[in-house]
Design a protein that fits this description.
Layout (H helix, E strand, L loop, with lengths): L2 E7 L6 H11 L3 E7 L6 H8 L3 E3 L5 H15 L4 E4 L11 H10 L4 E5 L11 H18 L11 E4 H9 L6 H11 L4 E5 L17 H18 L1
Parallel strand pairs: 1-2, 1-4, 2-3, 5-7
Antiparallel strand pairs: 4-6, 5-6
Length: 229
Amino acid sequence: MKKLIIIPAYNEEANIVKTVESIERDAVGFDYIVINDCSTDRTKEICEEHGFHYVDLPINLGIGGAVQTGYKYAWENGYDMAVQVDGDGQHDPEFLELMAEYLETYQVDMVIGSRFIEKQGFQSSGMRRVGIRFFSGLIRLMTGKTITDPTSGLRMAGRNVIELFSKDYPRDYPEPESVVAILRKGLKVAEVPVIMREREGGVSSISMKKSVYYMVKVTLAILIERIRR
């Protein structure tokens, strides 16, 4: 089984070395690709200096475009599984083999690493937990499926989801919307408990100023996805 780790990176010069080194140490059997989303810091130069595998985007595509680039790479290079691991140090590569075993054993299409099943490690800020509970309820209303951590970026996809996401993936704040899309297609999504860390640096894709826009945009996108499908 060919397994790929997609590392979307925007201004992650403080964390990218530690992230890749932890993958090389703790995720044996996985390949990786850093998607440098037109960073304005030294992310690209650091990847070059350390000989990391990377794709350098000529313009900033945002988190959705960066991750979709990784899925395109996975699809075109014949990977059976692809998993997103953020470049900010939040995701622990030690859980990736567990996720891969679960996906293969139970023949599901996507496995989400959830911080809220066993409620260990960093649990996000209070405001974000409110938003997470809102999206969890909205997804349950739209699909009948309970997803405890719908904004988790630690998600492992099988070959059919890789193909789907390589062709169609939300541009920004993609996690809740894309989960609804694959559930509406009748694909199987499961969650496994993981422990996440607090981000160690870099730039979050959701600032306080963007929180209201995030809630409205993702809610409308999920509702439109429900109608469109």
